[in-house]
Amino acid sequence: MERDDIIEYSLDAHHSEEQGRKIRKNIWKVTYILTLITAVEVAIGIIWPRSAMGAESWSWWSIKMGYLLLTLIKAAYIVLIFMHLGDERKSFKWTILAPYALFICYLIFIILTEATYNHEVTEPWGAWPGAVK
């Protein structure tokens, strides 16, 4: 039994072969960019492992911040392309992205602050009465 209340949206998507080529080219471009960013992240992890850097070194801190930056770039690109936010007006983009950017910065601040506090409390084992050295 065929339903007549379902609208077939794919039948309304008419475009020429040139427009189709342009769409496919854009899809490949997005794929290449996201693959490149991911490959850079993986290469950094392989080339400079944490054990080679030292947990408290400046270079390890810069690698962690680089990971955060690359991840945020990838997330922003995904939002702009796949959620079609890149086609909107600039004011609308900022209305959507600014609260998320502020929230992400707040979460990063909380994570880094609490991780430092936890490290300071648990590292000096002799600081607690009755702690085993």
Report on this structure:
With 133 residues, this protein is mostly helical. It has 2 domains: 21-87; 89-121. Helices cover 70% and strands 0% of the residues. The chain has 4 helices and no strands. Helix 1 (17-47) packs antiparallel against helix 3. The longest helix has 33 residues, at 90-122. The chain starts with 16 loop residues before the first helix and ends in an 11-residue tail after the last helix. 0% of the residues are buried.
- Kindly name the structural category: mainly alpha
Tell me the radius of gyration. 24 Å
Low-pLDDT parts are none
Tell me the β content.
under 5%
What is the strand tally? 0
Mean pLDDT: 79
The percent of residues in helical segments reads 55-70%
The number of distinct helices, counting runs of at least 4 residues, comes to 4
* Gap from first CA to last CA: 77 Å
What's the shape?
Answer: elongated
How many domains is the backbone divided into? 2
Largest sheet: none
Order of helices and strands: HHHH
